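If you are new to this repository, start here. Below is one unmodified record pulled from the training split, so you can see the exact layout before writing a loader.
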Amino acid sequence: MQRVDVLRRIVADAGADAAVVTDLADVRWLCGFSGSNGLLVVTTDGATLVTDGRYRVQAAQEVGDAEVAIASGPLFKHVSELNLLAKAEHILFQHDALTVKAHRDLTAAAPSAEFIGRSRLLAEHRARKSPFEIDAIRRAQKITDTVFGELLSIIREGMTEAELSAEIVYRHLRLGAERMAFEPIVASGPNGALPHARPSARRLQRGDLVVLDFGCVIDGYASDMTRTISIGEPADQEATRVYDVVVEALLRSTAEARAGVEAVQLDAVARDVIGEAGYGEYFQHGLGHGVGLETHEWPRVSHNAESVIPEHSVVTLEPGVYLPGRFGVRVEDLVVVGQKGADVLTTSTKELIRV
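And here is the target side for that same chain:
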C-alpha cells in the first residue's frame, strides 16, 4: 500500500474527506520531499505537495505519489488559489504541528469546512520501519560507531569539550554523514551530571568521566548513541560502581525489549535495577525514544508513556545516573524491536574505557 493511501484510510476513519499535513517529517515519509518549507494536501482522489520556488527542482526529483505545486507567496494562500480543498467538507489537520497563524491561514483556505484536529497523526505508522528505513539507520549507526572508535585515539587530557565536539562533527561528515542528527553532547566531570549539557570550554581532566552522546543522518534517518569514558582511572571511587549499575540496567532492558511490550514496563526494568542499587532519584529521564526521520519520535519509552512498542520500531535504550556536582554516566544503544527480541545496532563496547 502506498503511504498516501495509509493517510487516506486514516482520513476516512476520522469521518473526513481531506487532510492537510504540515509536519515536515510526515510530509517526507508520505511523499519523499525533504525541503524545509512545504505542506501536503491529500483528498480522496488526489495529493498535492505545495512548496516554494527554491525547491522546484528538488521537489521534482524527490516527490512521488503527489503532484507538485510551486507557490509564489504563502503556501496556504496557494492552496486556496488552486481550490485544493474546495470540495472538502471535513478536513483533518495536525494541531500539534501548526502555529496559531498557520491555523488561521488554513481555515481561511476552506472557510466553509469543518476542521478536525489530530496529534501524532502518523506516529504509529512511521514507527514501524520498512527494511529500507532500518538499513539507513543501521548505516548511520555504523558511522557513529566508527567515529567513537576514532575518538579513543585522540581524546586527551587538556582537550576542551568544544574541541572534542568539533572532532565528532568533522569525523561524521568525513565518513559520509549528511549532517549531525543533533548537536553532540560532550560533558566532562561535574558537567556529566547535566543530561543535556552543551559542549563548553572546560578542559578534560585526569580522573574525569566524560559523557559522549551523538548521532548522524544517512538518507534522512538518524543514529543515536551514548558512551561514557574515563580520562585515566576515575577520580571518584563511586564512578565504577555507578557505571556497572547503568550497564546492567541497559543489558536487562535490552533482554526484555520485544514487540508488544508496554513502554512503561520496559522502562521499569531499567529503573528497578538503578533503584535497587540506591540511585533511583538520580535517573532523571525516560529509558528511551523512537528514532527515524527524527532523532526523537514515537514511541517514548518512559515511566509515564502510554504506548506499546510495535514490531520493527527502532528505539534507544539509554539508562543514566547523574550525581550533581560529581559526574554522570549514560550508556545508550540503538535497537530494532522484533517479535522475539531486540537486534542491537550499536556495536561499540559497553565496557568502561580508560583513555
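Two things worth knowing about this chain: The longest helix spans residues 131-151. The mean pLDDT is 97.
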